[in-house]
Amino acid sequence: MTVSATQSHSGVQVPPHHPLGHQVTRWIKTQLFPTPFQSCLSLITLVLLVWFTPLALDWLLFSATFVGDSKADCIGGGACWLPVTQRIELFVYGFYPDTEIWRVNIAFGLAAAILPLLYIKQIDRRWVLGYLIVLPFLMWWLLKGGVGLPEVSSTKFAGILVTVFLGVIGMLFALPMGVLLALGRRSNKPVIKLLSVLYIELVRSVPVITLLFMASLMIQLLFPEGMTIDIFLRVLIVLIMFTAAYMAETIRGGLQGMPSGQYEAAKALGFSYWKTMGLIILPQVLRNTIPPLLTQFIGLFKETTLVVVVGVLDVVGIAMSTTAAPEWLGLEHEVYLFLALFFFTICFTLSRYARHLEKQMEKSRS
Questions:
Q1: Cβ-count burial of 313 within 10 angstroms (0-12 exposed, 13-18 middle, 19+ buried)?
Q2: What domains are defined for the chain?
Q3: If we measure between CA atoms, which residue out of 10, 227, 159, 47 comes closest to residue 219?
Q4: What is the spatial distance between Cα 126 and Cα 133, in angstroms, rounded to a whole number?
Q5: CB 178 within 8 A of CB 243
Q6: What DSSP state is assigned to residue 223?
Q7: How far apart are CA 171 and CA 164, in angstroms?
Q8: At what angle do helices 315-324 and 332-365 cross, to 10 degrees?
Q9: Vertex 212 angle, CA 207 and 214, to 5°
C-alpha cells in the first residue's frame, strides 16, 4: 500500500516538509514581488542599497580616521571620528572625577541589568520588583555619594551619564506614580477623582519644555531667599511628573479592559480594595501594559535631551559644545551621527524587547 506524503506508516498525519530554499523563495515572492508595482519599488530599493551601502561603509569605517590628535590628522576621504574618540570620556562621564569613574560604571551596569532580569522567567518576580525599588536609591548613592563615598556635586553630571540616569530613574519613579493616578481617576471618591483628572489633563496639555522652564526659572521664586533646590533634581522631578501622567492613561486603559468577573470574584472572597488591586488586578494590568509602557520609556529617554535648554549638559549638550570648539569646526556631521547611532541602539533594543513581550503575550492567550 502506498503511503501519502502527509501520512506516516503508523497512520499519523505528518505535515509536508518544505526545504529552506522553497520557504525563502516563497517569502520573496509574497513580500517583495506580489504585484508589478511593488516589484518595481523593490527593484529600485535594492539597486539603491547596492549602490549606497558600499559608499556608506567606506565613509563610515574603511576610509575613516579614528586615531589622531587634531583635525589635521584627518587626511582620508572618510569620516573624521576624532571629535568623538578624543572626547569619549567627556561624552560618557561628563565632568565626573576620574578617580570615581568606577561608580558610574557600576551604575551603568545596574541599569543595564534591568532587561535581562525582566527577560529571564526563572527569576522570581518579587525579587525583580525589589530590585527595581532599590535601584533608583542605589544609583543616586553611587553617583552623588555620601554614606561612605565621597560626595560629587551634580554640576559634574553630564553626557551619557545624565541621559541614562534621567531615563532610568524617571521611569522607575513615574511608574508607581502613574499607577496611583490611574487608580485615582477611577476612584469612587469625587475629590480624589477630580484631583487626578485635573493633574493628568493639565500635565498632558502642557509641552514638557514649558515645564522644564518653569522648574528652572519659576519654582525657585517660591522658596525663601537663600534656599535652593538642585537644578538636576528639579529637572528629574519634572520628567517624572510628565511621564507619570501619560503612564496613568495607559494603565487606566488596562484597568478598563479587565473583566468585571475579576472584581466580583475578589469581592466574593472578601478581599479589600487594596488587596484586590495588589494581588489580582494590578499584576495582570501591568503584565498586559508592559509593551506600551516600554514605548513610553523610549519616549522619555529621547525627551531627556530637552534638559540642555535649562543648562543641564546631557549627551546632546556635550555634542553641542564639541561642535562649537574651534579645533573641531566643520565636523558636526560625525558628532551628530554618533548621537544618532547611540539613541538608535538604545531605542531599537527596547522596541525589539517590547515586540518580544507582545509575541509572548499573544502565545499565552492562544
A1: buried
A2: 20-62 (no CATH), 84-365 (1.10.3720.10)
A3: 227
A4: 11
A5: yes
A6: S
A7: 11
A8: 160
A9: 100
What does residue 65 show for φ and ψ, rounded to 5 degrees?
-110, 120
Do the beta carbons of residue 197 and residue 140 sit within 8 Å? Answer: no
Cα dihedral 359/363/365/366 (nearest 10): 130
In single-letter form, the type of residue at position 7 comes to Q
**Cβ(258)–Cβ(285) below 8 Å:** yes
Phi, psi of 289 (to 5 degrees): -105, 10
Take residue 90 and report the three cell numbers written for it: 567627556
Whether the Cβ atoms of residue 80 and residue 338 lie closer than 8 Å to each other: no
Tell me if 191 sits within 8 A of 154, measured CB to CB: no
The single residue listed with the C-alpha cell 570648539 is 325
Closest CA to 289 of 126, 164, 175, 173: 175
CA distance 59 to 20: 36
- pLDDT (tens digit, 0 to 9) for every residue of the chain, 366 residues total? 444 444 444 454 545 555 666 777 887 777 777 788 888 888 898 999 999 898 888 888 888 888 888 888 888 778 888 899 888 999 999 899 989 999 999 999 998 888 777 777 777 777 888 888 898 889 889 988 888 889 888 888 888 999 988 888 888 899 889 999 998 988 888 899 999 999 999 998 888 888 888 887 777 777 677 777 778 888 888 899 999 999 998 888 888 888 888 888 888 888 888 888 888 888 888 877 877 888 888 888 888 888 888 888 888 889 988 888 888 888 888 899 999 999 999 888 888 877 777 777 677 666
Rounded Cα distance between 135 and 225, Å, is 34
